[in-house]
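Attaching the record inline, Q. Sequence:
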Amino acid sequence: MIRCYLSRILGERRLKISDVARDTDINRGTITRLYHETFTRIEIDVVNTLCKYLQCRIEDLFEFLPDEKDGDDY
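Structure, as predicted:
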């Protein structure tokens, strides 16, 4: 499973989804899906734009966690 920490980052910086959408020209729906972790895929240019805007690394924004039910280690 991929965790997205956008909601935590925006909360820490007191930014709203609408602020990020306006400042980055990323579709508000895309940001909302990332924020609520309901996304099924993400474009690399969106990741790149968010990392630049938030001045963070990709690993600050996303984390891979193995699914416990599958027992997969990777």
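The beta strands are 2-4, 62-64. Residues 2-64 form a domain with the 434 Repressor (Amino-terminal Domain) fold (CATH 1.10.260.40).

More tomorrow.
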